[in-house]
Amino acid sequence: MSGVDLYFAVAELKHLEGKRIARVRKTDSGIFLFKIGSEELLFQPGLRLHLTRQVLQGSLCLQ
Question: Which pLDDT tens digits describe the chain residue by residue (63 residues)?
Fold first, then answer.
């Protein structure tokens, strides 16, 4: 992700500031899913960071 990409991702996620992360999952393909409030944040290191409604298969809960 470039600095510009990160700038817009942070702006998109501003409404989540101060909310609690309820769960973190990691898929077999290395994608992290964060449950924040009633929303789910998808993070693929170095590639993408965004909200999602899609349910991904093959995820593990991290403790």
Answer: 788 988 988 898 999 999 999 999 998 888 999 999 889 999 999 888 889 887 666 555 554
Does the model's pTM come out above 0.70? yes
Residue 59 phi/psi, 5° resolution?
A: -105, 150
DSSP 35: E
11 C-beta neighbours (distance < 10 Å), count: 9
